[in-house]
Specification:
Blueprint lengths: L2 E7 L7 H12 L3 E7 L5 H10 L4 E4 L13 E2 L1 H6 L4 E5 L2 E5 L2 H11 L8 E5 L3 H12 L4 E5 L3 H12 L4 E5 L1 H7 L5 E4 L22 E4 L8 H8 L3 E3 L1 H17 L5 H10 L2
Parallel strand pairs: 1-2, 1-3, 4-6, 7-8, 7-10, 8-9, 10-11, 11-12
Antiparallel strand pairs: 3-5, 5-6
Helix pairs in contact: 1-10, 4-5, 4-9
The structure holds 2'-monophosphoadenosine-5'-diphosphate (ATR).
Length: 273
C-alpha cells in the first residue's frame, strides 16, 4: 500500500519539501507520496486528527506549529526536547513520535566541509524559532561563545540565556555592534528573515574577512545580499539550501531507515530556483 507523508504549516503553498521528498521516492523507486497540507494557526489539533484518520505515515511540521506540536506527540527524541520544538513526526500505529532535524540539518553542511566548531566563537543574527535550534547545535558541538544580535533585544537576551543553559558562554549585542565586531567571529550566521525579500544585509559586512564562515539560513533567494557582500570579502559561504537539504535527508532517514538520495534531492531543489 502506498505510504503517505506530508508537511503541515501555514503558509505552505511555496514549500519545497514535497518536491524534495517525491524526488527521493522516485530515485529509490519507493511506493510513497508526500503532500503539502495547510493547517492554519489554531487548528492544529483538528488537523492532526485528520492526518491520523488517513493513516499518515509521517509528517514535517513548519511555521507556525513547531513549538505547539510538542503538545500533541506521544514520545519525543532527545533533539526535540533540547530544542523544544518538533519538525518531524513518525506515526507508529497511531502513536506520534516527535523529532527535530533542524539542529542536525543545520550542522550537516559545516561537518561536510570538515570545519571545526569546538572552541570557536559564533555571532548569531536573529532570535526566532530557527535561531533556537542553531544555538542548541553550536552548544552541543562545543562552541566557545555564542553572541546573539537581534532587533528586539529582549528576545536576544532570552536566547543568550538559553545558550548559557548548556554551559556555553554567551552574550547579547545590537545589530550595529554585531556589524562592527563581525571580524572577531569564526562563524557569522543569519537566522533573521532579512533577505527573504532581497533586503540589504542585516549587518554591515565590512569586517567580514577570509577567515569568516558566513552561513545564511535563507534559501530563497539563494544569494542574499549578506552572502553576496561576504563573498566579496572572501568569506567561506554556506547556503541556506544546504540546511534545507540536511534536515530533509535526516527526516527521510528517520522515516525510511535508508540513506537519503542526497544528489537527487539536491538536483530537484536547485532546479526549483
Ligand atoms: P523563524 O522561526 O524562522 O526564526 P521568527 O521566529 O519569526 O522566524 O524570527 C524571525 C527573526 O527575524 C527574528 O529574530 C526577528 O527579529 P525580532 O525578534 O526583532 O522580531 C528577525 N527580523 C524580522 N524582520 C526583521 C528586520 N526587518 N530587521 C531585523 N530583524 C528582523
Amino acid at each position: 500500500m502506498t505510504k503517505t507523508f506530508a508537511v503541515i504549516g501555514d503558509p505552505i503553498d511555496h514549500s519545497l519539501s514535497p518536491n524534495i521528498h517525491n524526488a527521493a521516492f522516485n530515485a529509490l523507486g519507493m511506493d510513497c507520496t508526500y503532500i503539502a497540507y495547510r493547517i492554519p494557526k489554531g487548528e492544529l489539533k483538528e488537523g492532526i486528527e485528520s492526518l491520523k484518520l488517513i493513516k499518515i505515515s509521517g509528517f514535517n511540521v513548519t511555521i507556525p506549529h513547531k513549538i505547539e506540536m510538542m503538545k500533541y506527540i506521544d514520545e519525543s527524541s532527545e533533539e526535540c526536547r533540547t530544542v523544544g520544538a518538533v519538525n518531524t513526526v513518525t506515526n507508529e500505529n497511531g502513536k506520534l513520535i516527535g523529532h527535530n532535524t533542524d539542529m542536525g540539518g543545520f550542522l550537516e553542511p559545516i561537518k561536510k566541509r570538515n570545519i571545526a566548531i569546538k572552541n570557536e566563537d559564533v555571532l548569531l543574527l536573529g532570535a526566532g524559532g530557527a535561531a533556537r535550534a542553531i544555538v542548541a547545535g553550536f552548544a552541543k558541538e562545543g562552541a566557545h561563545k555564542i553572541t546573539i544580535a537581534n532587533r528586539t533585544r529582549e528576545r536576544g537576551q532570552e536566547l543568550a540565556k538559553f545558550a548559557a543553559s548548556f554551559g556555553t558562554e554567551s552574550d547579547e549585542v545590537t545589530l550595529e555592534e554585531a556589524g562592527q565586531s563581525a571580524g572577531k567571529y569564526r562563524f557569522i550566521v543569519n537566522a533573521t528573515s532579512v533577505g527573504l525579500k532581497n533586503e540589504p544585509s542585516p549587518i554591515s559586512t565590512n569586517a567580514i574577512n577570509s577567515q569568516s564562515i558566513v552561513y545564511d539560513i535563507i534559501y530563497m533567494p539563494m544569494n542574499t545580499d549578506f552572502i553576496i557582500q561576504s563573498k566579496k570579502n572572501s568569506a567561506t559561504i554556506i547556503y541556506g539550501y544546504e540546511m534545507l537539504l540536511g534536515q530533509a535527508c535526516l527526516a527521510f532517514e528517520t522515516w525510511h531507515k535508508v540513506k537519503a538520495p542526497y544528489d537527487a534531492m539536491k538536483k530537484v531543489l536547485l532546479g526549483g530556483f
